[in-house]
Amino acid sequence: MADAMPDTPSPVAISLDRLSKRFARGNTLALDDVSISVREGEVFGIVGRSGAGKSTLIRSVNLLERPDSGGVTVLGQDLLALDDAGLRAARRGIGMVFQHFNLHSRRTVAENVAFPLEVAGLPAAERRARVAEILPLVGLEGKRDAYPAQLSGGQKQRVGIARALASRPRILLCDEATSALDPETTREILALIRDLRARLDLTVLLITHEMAVVKAICDRVAVMEAGRVIEEGPVFSVFTRPEHPTTRSFVAEVIGHGVPASTLSRLPLPRAGEKRRLAQVVFTGPNSTRAVVSEASRDYGLDINIVSGRVDDIAGEPFGVMALAAYGPDPAIDAAFAWMRSLGLTVTEIAP
Ligand SMILES: Nc1ncnc2c1ncn2[C@@H]1O[C@H](COP(=O)(O)OP(=O)(O)OP(=O)(O)O)[C@@H](O)[C@H]1O
């Protein structure tokens, strides 16, 4: 099979076009002219703090929330133009996974997974066959007759995922799907979603308040604040070159910034007439940091201490992060940082 041309973008699977939504209660503008395009096969993340509008946005994709204005197109279909029957049919092509699993406690695993198929009027034999097919895909073979109370959180979410996929949707929406899970289970569930995306040709749109989730699973990300998208791009570039201060603070949660007070107290103080300035430097290209640091020290007459450094990996691409302390006159430090930026390094000064 020929590889797809790497630069040929796949078709748009979900197009949210200039959505606005105001809730009468509280007169809250939850969505303020938001546009997002998710391409087929992508895992697209929407990250934001509580109240940013993420839930309202993801619920607009299957019209659980109707926008006041704007367009919602999923797999080429204008959802706002559909009648009730048309919308029910379209929703079968859009699975949804919830933070608190939303399982029926008095139904077994198999009955929970089969529930949407029952609602859709599928005969019992077909429901059973589909359940038998899907449980192994989510690692729940052997659990078909268990009740939710007998399952761990991770297993409950596997049931939620199986139920979302029961009607063979091509789109999977994940509404804070791992927020109720511990870190290890979160990793397992994210890996499962990524694996299912590839095996079942899914397009995944997820919302989260955790940048670590975005780093673990997403191809592209949009950052929301106060009902708007404030930054959007491939995960690697958003992590390595965040532009908006809110994005920077999200990224810092994952790749770290600042220098612990204990480390700071061990750093030499600047000499009289000199400054000590701390910076976080992110490098992604061919420049080795060590060579850059020694060249900057030499050419700008500075003393530079590497305070910390590590190599991380985002979306399969390596990048390095280090904190350094530069000692010297302000103009020389300014010039050295500008030179580093001209090499493509991201230099962000951090408060001492
Ligand atoms: N049904 C509703 N009625 C009134 N206000 C609402 C309703 N749903 C959401 N809001 C408000 O709209 C804004 C956006 O809420 P939304 O739930 O979309 O944000 P979020 O980013 O998902 O945050 P969270 O993670 O806390 O749910 C908030 O100010 C919220 O209080």
From TrEMBL:
GO MF entry, a single one: ATP hydrolysis activity
GO biological process, one term: amino acid transport
Ranges where the ABC transporter domain occurs: 14-251
SMART domains reported for this sequence: AAA, NIL
Sorted UniProt keywords: Amino-acid transport, ATP-binding, Cell membrane, Membrane, Nucleotide-binding, Translocase, Transport
Stretches assigned to coiled coil: none
InterPro entries (UniProt xref): AAA+_ATPase, ABC_transporter-like_ATP-bd, ABC_transporter-like_CS, ACT-like_dom_sf, MetN_ABC, MetN_ABC_transporter-like, NIL_domain, P-loop_NTPase
Gene Ontology CC entries for this record: plasma membrane
Function: Part of the ABC transporter FtsEX involved in cellular division. Important for assembly or stability of the septal ring.
Stated family: Belongs to the ABC transporter superfamily.
Annotated protein name in UniProt: Cell division ATP-binding protein FtsE
Organism classification: Bacteria, Pseudomonadati, Pseudomonadota, Alphaproteobacteria, Acetobacterales
